[in-house]
Amino acid sequence: MLAEDFGLLSALVKLDVLDNFGIVQAAQKAPSISVADYLAGESQGEIRHEYIGGLVYAMAGASSEHNIICLNLAFALRSHLRGTPCQVFMVDLKARLSIAGEDVFYYPDLMAACDPRDTDHYFRKFPKVLIEVSSPETERIHRREKFSGYTRLETLEEYILVSQERMEVTVFRKANNWLPEIANRRDDRLRVPSLEFSLSLPAIYENAPPPPK
Q: Does residue 131 contact residue 162 with C-beta atoms inside 8 Å?
């Protein structure tokens, strides 16, 4: 998914707010679909799409490193959260945002949600923690467009980026004004106070093959 293709919105105030989302004028003529049609299509289709203000973007496939890292995190989080009101979701559940009055649906790699207001079968509006596993192709989007969108969510406490190219985890916390905290040593741990959760970096990267040179 490339958010750079998202067309300009007519209202200047929306343009200012959404400028971080890589808006370009070339996509202005792209057809728009409703949220209802998008959700219906996603529930039936085999290819996942993200949705930004009426436009949809197909998502690329993931690498083996990406999948292994996601599984390591998901299993550890699920085990930790068992018996609590919180649930962890991986890959296929959407996060729903509203940015400058426009609906946005992203597929975070992992999401922890604890809010009883979230009752929809296909998305969450009130996540507590969002995690993206970044490749060189997606890191800029995760650090700019998605960071700008996710950190507007009222219930979000931590946004976490996990590199699939190197042993490095970056945590953005609401409690720290969303400033980055980087862990990149073998004895470092990912710490998620909002979930009372921590995991060593070697456990996050367990069995993940090194990227090709």
A: yes
